[in-house]
Each structure stands twice: as C-alpha cells, then as structure tokens.
C-alpha cells in the first residue's frame, strides 16, 4: 500500500477538444446538427414548447408522453450528452410532423443526422454512466474505476470498427484514454504503443489499489475480469495476481513480514520453548527434587490453561486466503457484502476500511468548495480562514449533528 492512497483520485470528465471533434468526415454535416440541436435550435424551441404548440394534437401527444429536450450546460459534457439522447428518444416522425406544422423546417433531422446522433450516443453511453456513478454521494467509488475503464476500452475498440460517421471521435477518445490510463491497462496485460508510454500522465493510474478495490467490492470481486473480453489465459493470471495482492495487503495490516513468516517465527518459538524447559529443569535440580510431576486433581480437564498458546503468525496468511475463497463463493453480489459480514471476513474488512474510503473523483472536494462559496458572501467577506473552515465543517456534517 503506497502513498498513492492519498493521491488516487480519478476524473472521468472529457476535454472540450474531444467533444469538438468532428462527428463525421463531413464537417458541414456536424455543424448543421449542432445548429439544429443547440443554441437557438431544438433545445431553445422546447424551452418555449407551450407557446408554439397550443391546441395542436401532435404536440399534446408529445407533452402527454413527457418528451422534452433539456438545456445543455456548456461546462458539463454529460449534460450535452443528455440533451442529444433526449432528441433521439422522440419518435422522428412525430417530431418532424410537429416541426413542419409549426414551419420550423430548418430544425428537421435527416436520416444521416439521426445516424450520427445515434453513434454519438452509443459511444458516450458508458462514459456518461461512469461519470454519474463515480460522482454519486455517500457511495463507494474507487472500486468502479477498474471495471469502468476496462469496459470503456473494449467498447471503444468495438465502436471504432462499426461506426461510419464518428471514427475520428473514437480515435480521439481512445488516444486520450491510453494517455491517461495506459499504466492501468498495462497492469491488465493490455498492450500499449511505446510512444504513448512517454506521456507524463501515462502512469497516473498504474497503482494496484484499483485492482484491490474492485475485488473488495462485493458486486465485482473477480467478475469484471472473468466476464471481460480478455484472453482466457490472461484472465487466469490476473485473477491469481489480484488474489495474491489482496492477501499481501491484508497480511501487511496485521504487522507480519512475509519474507520470514515460515522460518524465523517457527525458529523463535522453538528457541523460546527450549530455553524455558532448560530454566525449569535447572530450578528443579537446584531445589533437590529433580523433575516433579504435576500434582493430580479432580476435573483437571476443566481448568483453563495457565498460558494460552500463541497463534502462529504463519497461520494468518492461510486464514486470509481462506477468507478470500469464502468471499468469492458467497452468493450475494452486493457492494456492502464485506461490511455486512465483517465477522466472517475480519481481515478483508480491515483492508476494505482502508481502501474503499478513497474517492474516485474530485466531486466531494468540489461540493465542499461550493458550500464554502455559499458561506463566503460580500456581507461575510471578513471571515477568517479558521472560522470559514469550521462553518464549512458544520454545514457539510449537519446531518450528523441534528
């Protein structure tokens, strides 16, 4: 367990250059789609939906079925994704009929427009889900990184083969993914080009914590490896690697040294036992009585031993490995499994408390920053840093106080 516990934060947001990449080889087509959806297009049109559709039967049907196009937030890429997906969700025939009746023919989506939009949604679906899940409050997030990145990598590979209009977008996203998570993918024995390895962000996520955290999450364990598109022999090696990592990390928490667990511990106990016997014999001989047998008594089998035998440290590793096997065989696939059964998995539970508390994104810090911004108003501009810190602490933990 390295110092990366404090540094292991992951941001799944995408750069604006990725989103501005042309949706198709025809630049005019992508710009036309942008005009139709954003700005003063469909997005703006649906803001004033009731104004345009009063008394129209088709429009009322859209309203009754709760179709809408939310306004996209420029600084939130997943908000733009939601806007596009809502457009595609509306039946195209119904939408075009409505636009024709309202004489908004410039907003009509052609067959090619819809094809481009559907490819766009297909590419970004997993990105959007990963962003939403990792930024959720009061939930474990670090365990989502490994399964998410592996699934997104193979999904992008598949999309790049089947897409017709968005190949440049797929290429840009794959390049960005390899540059940021190449070290993690190498840990999964996925080959990465040498020129990408020289990026300064390549090894940011190469720490083993992302493998261990996913294992400790009851809903994943090793399923995200077994159910992936990795080769079978690679899956076997990775499963053994992850189990060994978990065992080693759990073993380190109990203060044992794996290098001398077999020899030194046993030798120390043998030496201690020998010395004790010698001292006992010497004392008895000096007293003149020689070796005297223990005095007999009734119900001696009920007496508690004077000194409990110390559990050998070497047994701890075996117990950890047994816990791992039982954990893998448990039929419940829930994130909280290791916490619900902490008495059954004491070693793994202790490790999970250390690992799963790491946040996967900067969202928690951003929320605290936003709450501090609400406290620091022009009327409170002279608050000291200490007072602001205490007020922020109280505001963020008000549910625990009340």
UniProtKB/TrEMBL annotation:
It comes from the Eukaryota. InterPro entries: HATC_C_dom, RNaseH-like_sf, ZnF_BED_domain_contain. It is found in: Nucleus. Pfam families: Dimer_Tnp_hAT. Its main location: nucleus. Residues 340-395 form the HAT C-terminal dimerisation domain. GO terms for molecular function: protein dimerization activity; zinc ion binding. Keywords: Metal-binding, Nucleus, Zinc, Zinc-finger. One of its GO terms (cellular component) is nucleus. This is HAT C-terminal dimerisation domain-containing protein. It comes from Rotaria magnacalcarata.
